[in-house]
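From the pipeline queue, job 12 of 40. The input is one protein chain; the requested action is below.

Action: predict structure.
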Amino acid sequence: MRVAVAGAGAWGTALAHQLAGNGHGVMLWAREPDVALAINRDRQNPRFLPSIQIHPSVQATNEMGLALHGAEIIVYVAPSHVLREVVRAGTTEVGADALLVVATKGIERQSLALMTEVVSAECHGRGVVALSGPSFAMEVARGHPTAIVAASESPKAAEAVQRILSGSTLRIYTNDDVRGVELGGALKNVMAVATGIAEGLDLGLNSRAALITRGLAEMTRLGVALGARAATFAGLAGMGDLVLTCTGSLSRNRAVGLDVGKGIPLRDILAGRDSVAEGVINTESAWALARRERVDMPIVEAVHRILFENQTPRQAMSELMSRELRAEHDQ
């Protein structure tokens, strides 16, 4: 099939490499001219996915129209804060029958829309599938066994993505709870920042386990309030992605939290980074969404105070521990 991948960061490049390895013709759109040049000339993306030899049939371009023209499937992998801009830039080249896959994890800051909602709003009348789950791009590109989820209200659309992407080392499951899958992928980034902060404060492994577990409870509460199924958060796109992002050494969000916990100012942590730590952006969105829905999310509140309200990490963690006592499953 003719596949376009819009976004040549680590995850977009890894997905393009996987799709090409499955025999599909892949055109990869990169915002950065040096990235497209390096892929076409050297078969590498040293800026975002170093040390990986990219499949020879992946072609890269900086021209959005060229990337999208004639594509039967378009995979959007732009950061959440620019996804709408990227989709809008190429709408005239999106075919009427194109299947759209959204591999971006996040909640749009201004509208509080999920990523599939952003894409659907800009490209009407096409099938849209959310792709999420525990998947470090480097490990997928290296062929490490990975399992993720393709979610859509259309079983046929989800199954199409399942067939196209699955391979000997990448297994795709389908799900019809799009909202739950997307919220899991977005909210786990905030929890990863929290666990990184605790690690930076040298609070030990007990605190990490507590933050992961109670973080999952918060994610599930908000998801159910928004119409998602609780069971989705016990799956790959919920617990699976949460555990990976909170504990894995390749997690950008955990790394940001680690530096925050060590006392490094957020502006200094983010300065000069090529890759985006979605947990910082999604903290603002999750905080606003929880307030709108009147859902109690104390970990999200704590991370928001640390990142945006100048509270010290140690004080925020102390306040988490001194909250009113309650039953574990009290909603």
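Job complete. The CA atoms of residues 267 and 307 lie 10 Å apart.
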